[in-house]
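LAB NOTEBOOK - FOLDING QUEUE
OPERATOR: T.R.
BATCH SIZE: 2
PURPOSE: Compare the predicted structure-token outputs for two unrelated chains run back to back under identical settings.
PRIORITY: normal
REVIEWER: second-year student, initials M.K.

ITEM 1
FIELD SEQUENCE / FIELD STRUCTURE:
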Amino acid sequence: MNEQTTVELRRPVVVGALGALALVGLYMGIVRIGSASWPHVVELLLTDWYFVAAVATGFGVQIGLFAHLRQVVRQNHGTRSAATMAAGGTATSTTSMVACCLHHLADVLPVIGLSGAAVFFTTYKVPVILFGLATNALGIGMMIRTIRRHSRMECAQEGRTDMAPGTFVETAGKETLPLQITGMSCASCVASIEGAVGNLPGIVSVAVNLNAGTGRVEYDPATVTPVQIKRTIRDLGYDAAERLEGTAALDREREARQREIVNQGRWMLVAWPLALVVMLGTFQDVWILPRYVPKFFGNPLLLFGLTTPIVFGPGWQFFVNSYRGLRHGVADMNLLYATGIGAAYLIAVINTFWPDAGFGGPEAVFYEAAALLTAFIILGRYLEALTRGRASEAIRKLMSLQPKIARVVRGETEVEIPADEVEVGDVVVVRPGERIPVDGVVLEGYSAVDQSMLTGESMPVEKRAGDEVIGGTMNKTGAFRFRANRVGRETALAQIIALVENAQASKAPIQKLADLVAGKFIFWVHVLSLTVFLFWFFVGYGLFFSPETRLMLTPYTLAGVGVFGFALLVSVAVLVISCPCAVGMATPSAMMAGTGKAAEHGILFKGADAVEAASKLTAIIFDKTGTLTRGEPAVTDIVPVQGVAAAEVLGLAAAAEVNSEHPLGEAIVRGARDRGISVASPETFEAVPGHGVTAHAAGHAILLGNRKLMLDGGVAVDAVSTDAERLEYEGKTVMFLAADGRLAGLIAVADTLKAHSADAIRLLHDLGLEVAMLTGDNRRTAEAIARQLGIDRVLAEVLPQDKAVEVRALQAAGRRVAMVGDGINDAPALAQADVGMAIGSGTDIAKETGHVVLVKDDLRDVVTTIEVARATMRKVKQNLFWAFVYNAVTIPLAAGLLYPWTRQLVSPELAAFLMAISSLTVTLNTVLLKRFVPSLRREPVRRAESTALAPVAGGGS
């Protein structure tokens, strides 16, 4: 042992010794008050020396360890639970010592108004001392474990002299460990696992999802290993294994849930029949039961024999898991259950075999409380296991889409192989009624493919040579062959599953309060329960007790239960009725259901924070090109002069532009061919920069361009000038056409709107959102499009690098902004927005920037995104409201707040029933989110007439 270590240990040893001596001095000082002389004090000390020595030693050790831990607590956040337990142990040590000596003052305390304290400490000296010693031992064990963990962290960080203990420096070697965790039952289980794993050295972050039964740990492999992480979780009483992929993960999750259902169902078969017999025996002399229930059913020895298998069978899991959790310095719902069941059972046993011990006597035999309490808790666990998987049904549906077999071409034959063995470049054959195994491009054949499970499209999509197909979608009609270009984790289905899983594992900001409450809940409920016991024992029983006292919803009276039994009954009810599960489950269960529902409609949230942010949006910014519009110009209007056909105007213009590479020229040629117009090749062609083109084609000398070109060619445009001004006001590019020196007409070209742009803007207005458009185009064109769509604000002539600045400006004005873009040149703006939505991603899901990925190229999905987010957050708030209101109402009720007026108490078994119903209510309320249907599906949408679909002016359709 080096000198520094000796110096570090010297102070805690001295503090501990002084603490032990101080406690002995306290004992002697209190005894001296009621004694005639110091020799008599020494005589009494020798009488109780074993109690005094045990308590003083425990107190001294704990004080010394606590002094050593103070520095650790300041440097390592993870030791706060040990510090709290140490403080609690210190308090109970002092109480134990006081109990050793206050019985000597039975004649003195009543004089100063403490007769109740004198009676309590005289009657219950031994139980109080034993409780203090047990708490001392628990605190000492937790602190020793914390000190050892701290030492391991220092060893792991040896050589990093610039690091404080418990800190972590992120390295390039950071890795992620996905876990499948079974055995969790409530939010406190999540807090326990996150706290215990988070205390390990080298842990960057821990996220556990109760409903999915999954966890994700980021760690430094140079400091901690996956084996250590999984061992820590198993030591808490849970099972942890590395999460598999695809259907293997689905199978393991289903097996684990089914195993939990079978286990709890088996325990129900044990607990409920015995518990009902115990209840009948307890109430044998009540109501009409004496006619049907034999008198010996009420024999305490029989009740003991029936209750013991329940406590040490179905109920034993709670004691084991409590012990495992406390070893790691964490407390969960198992501790509440174990305390409630153990207290009721232990007092019943003492009052059965030692009725004069002072714990209420034969009237305080609460076997039915321990039995029914266990039975109701097991019932709650069983129902939760049945319903928990339903919130994650969407992810299981997605996983089940992956086919197991693929048919590939090998040489001239077709061979069936496992789908996960398909390689990039393989030619895959798909027949009608089969699922497409991987992503690829159609080589030959024609079919209609149902993509509804991935993209939400209600109608099958036609596929022919050159079209992309997505793995997991259903081939409906024809057969085709395609070349695989994405397999394994790169397929769109795998990317969607990964995004949904990540979103479900993440935590929304609103969950911070719930996590804080759930994390501290167990400790403070125990404190409240102890406070309630002390109140009713010392004050409440004497002031309010009535022989007419009954347990709620029963005819059972508590006339002879005694002060101890009465106070114990109330405190146990407080322990059992409290439900941090509902608080902790409120947010993650709703987020899981909401993100799964969004995925069904082709909307992928990248995190729970995106769901919450999307529900609060007040403004939506759309990028114009490629988002509101198709991103390529098209012929929108043809205005011929009198005597000339629209088809002739378009045909001559196309002939002049057929060899042009200008986007407007290509649009004219494409427009002519789409309308079935034959396009002649020009004999000559010349581009006039900044003005247009000249050409000879089909026997005509052609001029196609702007007014300047017509003026230079001596062509008057007065006949169509009014139409030209109108079209230019609408933001379209106008080109005049002259043939053989005479004006033939004009053609208007514009970037046309997508089919559902107007519908989307109208629906967003219906949701109360402000809509803006962001574009680099000139203001006249931008405002023309805005007028067609009903957009509120136009941000025009904005360079790509300045788009994020415009988003920031709206945010500075107090708006919560979403940016919708195609993700190509919108990345900075998507990242700056409160919610960035990348639209029309198709199969390139993983490459998208932003917080939400919209798989389909349909702007109405922006509306659905907001509706899903709002529906999800409504469920979150409903769940939180119910959870907090439940605890705020039932805990005071169980504590006896209304007892002075009602003369009724909540029994422990009724408390257990209410607790189980609370958790189940939150789960069922979340499952109702499955019934959510977007407004687009609920009623036919009135489709605004789109420019892209309007007939070309002049009849040249």
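ITEM 2
FIELD SEQUENCE / FIELD STRUCTURE:
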Amino acid sequence: MYTAPLPTALVINDDPSQLHLMVGLLEKDGLQVVRCQSADEALAILDERGTVDVIITDLHMPGIDGWRFCQLLRSPQYAALNTVPVLVVSATFSGTDTEQVTTDLGANAFLAVPYDATTFRESVRNLLAGRTPQAARRVILVEDSVAQSAILQRAFEAQGYKVSAAATGEEGRRLLREQTPELIIIDYHLPDMTGDQLLKEFVCPASPMVAIVMTIDSAPEVALQCMRLGADGFVHKPFDLEYLLDLCSKARRSRALLRVEELLEERTKKLQESEAKFRLLFDSIPETVLVHDNQGRILYVNDVGAQWLGWPAPELIGKHLSDIVAPHYLVQISEQGPAQYRQSASHSKMVYVSRPGQLLEAEVNICPMEFGGQMAVLVVARDITERTRLEAQLRQAQKMQAIGTLAGGIAHDFNNILAAILGYSELALYDVPHGSRMQRHLEEVLTAGKRARDLVQQILAFSRQRPPERQPVRLHLLISDILRMLRASLPSTIAIHPYLTSTAGMVLADPTQLQQVLMNLCTNAEHAMRDTGGVLAVHLEAVEVTADFAATHAPLTPGPHTYIMIRDTGHGMAPEVMERIFEPFFTTKAVGEGTGMGLAVVDGIIASHGGAITVASTPGQGTTFAIYLPRIDIDTPSLDVLEETPIPQGNGRILFVDDEPTLAHMTAEMLSRLGYDVTVHTSSVEALKTFQAAPWQFDVVITDQTMPVMTGERLARELRRFRPDIPIILCTGFSHTMTASKAQALGVDAFLLKPLGFRELGLAIQQVLEQRQAL
């Protein structure tokens, strides 16, 4: 069984998306499709294949455009293709003028983009079926010879023209005013005028009308005069009709080519005007505006974008996207493919790389556009680098807040456990022989318990669960605690060399903030030595700041200061990096390892304490930070002296309230050992009832803060309603709602942190009783 071969269509379009669309529509109709992106490529294919059934070509293409391609297809050089139907499509040119010029140059049909699929498919089917849509072309014949006019009329009508005839110049003038013909044939010698008069009136270079003059004169002057007036051709009577028709056809195509040049010139002028407007608009936008072609070559970037990327604008033109886009995102663009990437508008995130190598995050809006006569991609990028870092900082802060909340809950429970361990250990010490092995064991338990208590306080400090309060701080003790905690997290390849003098004095500071400063600097030092190991040296000593030094290191003032030096033997910093380390969001760490806020915060904390921080660094030799803080002179007893003072004994009646039965009974026994009579309650409500029954029988009330039904704070208020002068001591392992300053504002006489020891209890009770007696 014989099967007829499928018709073949040759499609030429330099726009991949349009090419893909047309190929898909044609294949859906059962055509074999040969595709190419230029007229040169199409001609090479035609030379090899010989012919095709239909040709669909774009109009505006690089190299040979669609108009000239049509002219070639209708030329004697491509005689085998003269009868192949041609459909021209164009997204650049449209209108009846363009359609007329295109058909004059040999195309059989014209479609302006955008078009609907049905119209496109119907046009191709008509061409394949031999149905060539052509509008009737008009010709005006101005000839006084009736016989000659009739012969010409029949010849042009046979070519598909609609003919209007005039026997005089005046009648021809009327027809030319009423109609707009594509062609006029004028006899030079008319009864009432010569043909050159009509040429003067109606023929001009911009007119698409073709004018041919007929005459019996053989003198060349007549022909030259008519040609000067705009005639496209000149024939001597008598003439061959085929010659005249061929002359008209050639003249029409020549006139069409001239019109093509005019259309291209108009288009170029509009493009230049449009580009100038685009540039003015783009340069006024405070965002990065970038245009690149389908291959990623940069065609334009505004001044804002060039400055953001760290390039002079002229140097960016011609570069590839790979020069400014982070590799991961460049791969993402490549995977999308050029056609998909620019087929429609889209919104996404992109990471660019500046000329100095800084990563710049941006929100980008991408859409296709025509630029410089070609399809291109418009990118408008908004810098979100700072916003992204702020978001990361906020997420980190929220994580720290969550950790702090968790740490607070753990601290409360852990402090209660520690209170039992420490309390019962101290009670046991009273019952064992002095100097016995059991005494030594219990003392070790106490020492370990106190270290655990201090560790809990440090966790609370770092989780910011304690409000910032400035107080005299002994830096050698603070730094010792930090180094002890830091030692557990440092690799064994990093040695810590402390030099801390106890004579360095004290500073008025927030201990939590100072811990943050020192931990930040020490962890930065660890990061610099992580791969190679090294030495972390920490020095503390007293210095005198001179007037000259203070003048160059604001806000320092001349006088006594405490000097802290933190030095590492890591990779060091280049001068250009060292100049920027205190800038917010500047970081040399990899993505995910730093926010660029640490040293900026350190600088702010030190400045808020009236101090200054300096840095010195050499690449390959390490970095040294020096901190200067104003020293204060306050006489305070040393911890050793406090430990040596005897535990104060007393007498009186104490109401003790704690919802933990173990702690309640243990503390009651401790108070009994100190000489006091104790009434114990594990319910704040029951304790209040007991107090209401006999408020004057108690000398002191000691209550926990965190209890069910009624907190220690509320209990204190209720107690004061019945007896305003009752001394109250408030205790807590941890509380989100109660601090020492709030307790003082509440009128509480003392605020103690669990776990409580004999000494803390005895001193606190003695102090509140003496204060009440002094009133």
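REVIEWER COMMENT (ITEM 2): The CA atoms of residues 198 and 245 lie 21 Å apart.
FOLLOW-UP: none requested
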